[in-house]
Sequence to fold (608 residues):
Amino acid sequence: VKVRVLGSAAGGGFPQWNCGCRLCLGVRAGTLRARARTQAQLAVSARGAAGWYLLGASPDLGSQLAACPPLHPRGPRDTPIAGIVLGNGDLDHVLGLFALRESQPLVVWATERVWRGLAEGNAIWRTLERFPGQVRWERLVLGEERPLADGLAITALAVPGKPPLHLASAPPSAEDTVAIRLREQAGGPTLVYAPTVGGRTPLVERLAAEADLLFFDGTFWTSGELGGTAPGAPRAEAMAHWPLSGTGGSLELLERAPGRRWLIHVNNTNPILDEDSPERASVRAAGVHVAEDGLAVDTDEEGP
Amino acid sequence: VKVRVLGSAAGGGFPQWNCGCRLCLGVRAGTLRARARTQAQLAVSARGAAGWYLLGASPDLGSQLAACPPLHPRGPRDTPIAGIVLGNGDLDHVLGLFALRESQPLVVWATERVWRGLAEGNAIWRTLERFPGQVRWERLVLGEERPLADGLAITALAVPGKPPLHLASAPPSAEDTVAIRLREQAGGPTLVYAPTVGGRTPLVERLAAEADLLFFDGTFWTSGELGGTAPGAPRAEAMAHWPLSGTGGSLELLERAPGRRWLIHVNNTNPILDEDSPERASVRAAGVHVAEDGLAVDTDEEGP
Fold:
């Protein structure tokens, strides 16, 4: 499997448009050793194949596609994007669908819950339905592996989550937030994309143990971190993000995972964005990497 | 008035993600003398003032704000954006509101028609209503001048238009599409922003005649242009865009307008994007400029 990290930040990106915290100021001014990041987005493709699948559809998708030549069209009206796989209905994970609105047929893979939250109840969705069948929904059922093209297959696996902010009044469902497991062939290397994980469960442990390539929720370093910059903000767990640090933090699990591991969906408040910080050093010492926009990974390669 | 052109292309930008026409290929490959452009977006501010108003909210707003230092925050959670003025409800003019979703209070100026099309019937709108009063609507009534801060005042003026694509079943209204006239003070210089103008009317003629700074619909060169790249596409006029060329084209009007004039909302199919094209030479000969991302204009200055 070929993987391109088109974006690696949490909602709002880094720096965030309305944030003047130490990290955002530092990366804008160039006084901090840190890289700007757009909102989390992966693209994956089978070895030797021309088609690509998007994991998520970030609000920055337009500029992310422009920055990635393998995703450019090859004919007058064309795209190598073979499908879009959605793991949750948060706006920072789905808004980019509206960047794909130029009468292009699309295939969207999502749980029924995520699909209905998006395609029903939003008048603007009709922009993606200019002709019958423009958007085709492929339903993901928890735990059932589904074939994509080029020998790829995906499975949606429920992780601790929550409904998206704009559907907060809906009762929670196990289909609200899923990790995506992708395999090129049975027995082949396994990619797990889990940008939103609210805490530890046996399934989360199993995903970490079996992934050859793991992109895991790196949103927050501590539970109360967001409140330090945005007073009154909820704690990490209430936003379905398991903080990295301390006893019981996700870094304990990730340190023992056997595959190649990256943190992704990193919030602008997370001190690991500062490459000279002690927090970043702790991540490094745990053998875990912090994903960056533009990163290219192949399951055939060793490293990083 | 200070003006910053944050984006100058029509919906989809230039190059467009799923387009491999001669212009899109050429700008990607660097074989054409042409500049890439994000989707049309202006920011305006009174001289000496720190606050800015956005005219439109393009899907590229996140990266557009990042690229414009005067629009960066000055405190921990802050923005110099004092308000957003919407002239129509097309997604390429409003989707960027969802880039401003980080619990920031916002003021949106729009006609009742544009406001209801956006704030009603879209569940994702609740993302901008995390607390009561987070988004305040200021109603624009056709032809009535309304004061903003810093001595600025705006007027919404009906131009030939249409409902947005996703609300195409609604009966057309004069409030669907408006030009925005902005003045720093009574009798002072006048800015007109009219990225969508479906044809000639006495009011359109008056706006062109009275604007000291005019940013006008430069979407298409000819009526049938889009169909050449996207077979079956409607004609320019059916999309509420008055083509530039030929007898009865908008360039005839613009050539005679007395103020400084820029074309904006330029579609990726428009040959004027090629700086070496005869069409671009015709525009130049008419004394009209083609807006570019990053352009900064001040009504106190002379030229270009």
About this structure: The mean pLDDT of chain B is 95. Chain B touches chain A through 54 residues (CB under 8 Å). The two ends of chain B are 16 Å apart (CA to CA). The helical segments of chain B are 22-29, 61-66, 91-94, 112-119, 202-210, 225-229, 250-256, 278-285.
